[in-house]
Amino acid sequence: MTLLSYRRRSAFGGRAMDLMFGNVVPLVLGSIGVLLLYQWLQRFRQRAYIQDAVVVITGASSGLGKECARVFHAAGARLILCGRDRTRLQELIQELKEGADIKQKTYTPCTVTFDLSDTSVVASAAEEILKCYGHVDILINNAGVSYRGTILSTNVDVHKEVMGINYFGPVALTQAILPSMVQRRSGHVAVISSVQGKIAIPFRSAYAASKHATQAYFDCLRAEVQQYGIAVSVFSPGYIRTNLSLNAVTGDGSRYGAMDKNTAKGRDPLEVAEAVLRAIGCKKKDVLLAGPLPMLAIYIRTLCPQLFFKLMASRARKEQRPKDD
């Protein structure tokens, strides 16, 4: 190769590189700009959707419900907090007032006290809820109870108790609030289900069954009410660092009273509450809030059920739990 031809090739290569970078850099910068603009629009949309919205949260006095109250209050929602303990709800309101950002427009929450597991009182509770602001924009069915025990040693009444709180309670409240949403052609119904609404693991039969039923009901609801402009969101978190296992019921109806190792290592409830806020703001329909292993288990259960069944049987043998443990 002569020196002249080498220089020509070098010059051509340099021009090619200049041309490539001259086209690629603006494209990359433009793509980043579009992405940032999209994210900004999403955040603006979320704030606009939540600001001034009437939001009902059940099980608001503790755990994930309490953290949801914090983030929705900070976002400017008009909260209606529901639970069984009036004193704890009032304490939460005081906490929200004291922690409020003076630069952010917030509202003093209302409270409605009732036992969600008693479906006979849900209709009157719904009337009280609707009287607070005249309507409900977002209903978050959060209240629930967990369970630990073997099927052989579990009383049928325990199954009924868990199903009553986790399934029939949210169904009754949703159906009591729903007609007002249909009339207004607007509304959003959310429910905190569980990964165990998609897969079942040993020693959680009553809990997994109630969450499977919850998933099915709200999937049906989503299809039926879309024509009325009503959104439905189902959240399926994995382990959350709350007192859920401490308050879980066992096979004879007594309290479990212990913090699971997995629960202790679970996600921060505030982090989960913030994810719920963002997803509701975007009107997401089905939200999985779990790590890679639960997600993998869901795929295995769907694509290779025989392998999933073997893994669960092996897990049951390894845990070797005593009765009602």
Overview of this protein structure:
The chain has about 325 residues and is of the alpha/beta class. The chain contains ten helices and seven strands. The protein has a seven-stranded parallel sheet with strand order 3-2-1-4-5-6-7, with helices on both faces. Helix 9 crosses helix 10 (about 305-320). The longest helix is centred in the first third of the chain and has 48 residues, at about 5-50. Putative oxidoreductase. GO terms for molecular function: oxidoreductase activity, acting on the CH-OH group of donors, NAD or NADP as acceptor.
Q: What percentage of the residues does DSSP assign to strands (E)?
A: 5-15%
Instruction: Give the total of domains.
Output: 1
* Distance, first to last CA: 82 Å
Total count of helical runs of at least 4 residues = 10
At the fold tier of CATH, the topology name is: Rossmann fold
CA-based gyration radius? 25 Å
The low-confidence runs, each spanning 5 or more residues with pLDDT under 50, are none
Taking strands numbered 1, 2, ... along the chain, how are they ordered across the largest sheet? 3-2-1-4-5-6-7
In total, the number of strands is 7
Can you give the mean pLDDT? Answer: 88
Largest sheet: 7 strands, parallel
Examine the secondary-structure arrangement and name the CATH architecture: 3-Layer(aba) Sandwich
Secondary-structure-based class equals alpha/beta
Fraction of residues in helices? 55-70%
Task: Tell me, briefly, the overall form.
Answer: globular
Assign the CATH superfamily: NAD(P)-binding Rossmann-like Domain
Task: List SSEs in N-to-C order.
Answer: HEHEHEHEHEHEHHEHH
**CATH C-level class:** Alpha Beta
InterPro entries: KR_dom, NAD(P)-bd_dom_sf, Sc_DH/Rdtase_CS, SDR_fam
Pfam family, one: adh_short
Family: Belongs to the short-chain dehydrogenases/reductases (SDR) family.
GO molecular function: oxidoreductase activity, acting on the CH-OH group of donors, NAD or NADP as acceptor
